[in-house]
Amino acid sequence: MADPRLSMIDERLNGISNILAISSGKGGVGKSLVASTLGLILAKRNYEVGLLDIDFTSPSTHIILNMGDLCPKEDKGIVPPEIYGLKYMSIVYYSREHPLPLRGIDVSNVLAELFAVTIWGNLDFLIIDMPPGISDAMLDIIKLVKRIRFLIVTTSSQLAFETVRKLICLLLTSKIPVIGVIENMKMKGSRSVQPYVEEMDVKFWGEIPFDIKIEEALGDVDKLLDTEFSRKMEEISIGRI
Amino acid sequence: MHEWALAEAIISTISQIAEREGLKEVIEVRIKIGELQQIEPDVLRFALSQIRTSIFEKTRLEIEIAKAWFKCGNCGNKWIFDKETLDDENADAIHFIPEVVKAYVKCPKCGSMDLEILHGRGVWLEGVKGVK
User: Fold this and answer.
1) In angstroms, how far is the first alpha carbon of chain A from the final one?
2) Shortest Cα distance from B105 to chain A (angstroms)?
3) Global pTM value
4) CB–CB of A123/A117 below 8 Å?
5) In this predicted model, what pLDDT tens digit does every residue of A48-97 receive, in sequence order?
6) For B12-26, how does the pLDDT look when each residue is reduced to its tens digit (9 = 90+)?
7) What dihedral do alpha carbons A44, A50, A54, A60 form, nearest 10°?
8) Quick one: A4-237 is in which CATH superfamily?
9) Across the interface, do B5 and A117 touch by the CB < 8 Å criterion?
10) Which of A158, B50, B77, B115 fits a 20 to 30 Å CA distance from A82?
């Protein structure tokens, strides 16, 4: 007859001022790094920030943040624990180091479950790290989370941008706000996607140069915030969201 | 799903139904809960009793637990979920997010992790009766 979880989602998200999904058509473009770093930058500026990783089959924000044995608390639902000023939620608390193969219907169920049980409280920003592409998770999140806005991450590659173009097209057609596009891992001499983004009437936030030091900063938040990547992220994002 | 979160969701959903249907009193609620949710019916009843509003004062609550069945996406084998094969930590993880079962259960016949949950997942309001 009725799935009671769905009636709770709006209420659970009621105390959140801004819900921002970090998305891309392709994997490997730096969505999780952008999501985590943006969250950390906002938290450092004393905003109340939540970070939700919904890349259920290939989560990675827990590695970036070095989650360790952090665990949510139970209090009439699930209360996300805090890490580096972020209220952090990921399926990894439950699947741990095991592979978690999910079909589309499973992804829809996990999303509904997580949104129905997670008690975020009052937040200035909830940042959602999306899986790549425009399949179940994307379609469900558009349906379930009202007020959602998208920040898109791409690289200069035609292969990435072609999928991003389709993603933006889907969002704009669905009347979902796209607040900007970040061109990540920019290499010297590579073409810019800026004109193609602006052609779609979407704001181009800027380029982030390829930063070779990122890899060694994974799992070390202080080091991460001290990279060229983070400095550029801060420069192009603050004042825009 | 956590019993308290579930209780809130149930009350919220039925309240919306009652408002839409113009019910002044809810006299019967039938809920079907998948076994994978590992909901304790008594804890759920208690949670519901703590947060119910006046329209639920005379409500008779029926809770049915649906057995969990899996089908292997690789070899087609079907089998019944056996909680006893899981340790407490894994069972607890499944209680919160039932799909996590796919990280901990394999097909007993071929060892595949490609499982389809045929029955026993989710929570459904099967019926609501009330007085207008």
Assistant:
1) 40
2) 10
3) 0.94
4) no
5) 999 999 999 999 999 999 999 999 998 889 999 999 999 999 999 999 99
6) 999 999 999 999 999
7) 30
8) P-loop containing nucleotide triphosphate hydrolases (3.40.50.300)
9) yes
10) B50
